[in-house]
Specification:
By secondary structure, the protein is α/β, with parallel strands linked by helices. It is 32% helix and 27% strand. Pfam families: ABC_tran.
Amino acid sequence: MDPIISVSGVTKTYKGGFQALKATDLEIRRGEIFALLGPNGAGKTTLISIICGIVKASGGTITADGHDIVRDYRAARQAIGLVPQELTTDAFESVWATVRFSRGLFGKPPNPAYLEKLLKDLSLWDKKDERIMALSGGMKRRVMIAKALSHEPTILFLDEPTAGVDVELRRDMWEMVRRLRENGTTILLTTHYIEEAEEMADRIGVIAKGEIVIVEEKAELMRKLGRRELTLHLQTPLETLPEGLKAWDLTLTDEGNSIVYAFDAQAAETGISALIRRLAELGLDFKDLQTRESSLEEIFVSLVRDSK
């Protein structure tokens, strides 16, 4: 299946000489949720703005739903809905009026039934006659999503969609994004919340200093780059690790009460059984053990650090 978004060799250098994007290649699959992670200034918003036609690229080509974003701008832009970081909408308009106006901007004929369903899906229907200025931050964020979806795009960009939103509302929005994907919308989101990408994304891309560092299936990324740790809580604390344990990658923690063993869970031999036998041979008893897998946040921090 052809990608719904194809980015090829795209660069962006501003007049002052700052290179926000180096030659960037990226493909987004139709119907997926793709999370783009990166620190501030990494190029996330620049890349999204170029794809959406807000910022002009210095080089390269992009197609959106089969349309070149420069040669066939109108059709490409109609395929895209964008929810920017900043809450920018007419504060004095009602929810209904602003969403209806957004649909008209794309030349779509009136469709009150579609807009009603959209507002109901976003839990905004009971707010339809209220002015934007009277809404909470979370409700304003939902209105921005409703505006972005008003013209029935096939692609939705969410740039930091849950910034400033409380935990409960964030969870509600995650569920809403999943429903959109189930209805066939392709979603690309940028986020500072690592757990957001871990919770929702099918694939994850990491960008640092204007370069895509890695693009991978979420599960595969966790498998390739994640590590597991085995923690053994000792019966009697140690001052130092015995020489007989040098063969393992061990760390003494918790004031000598615990030994932490870092291992590759995918390896044919993890070394755990041999370690436990060696502990018994050395007369080191433990009262409890537990394992922990690297989080996506730890993987992300590692990738960004390695790119410096």
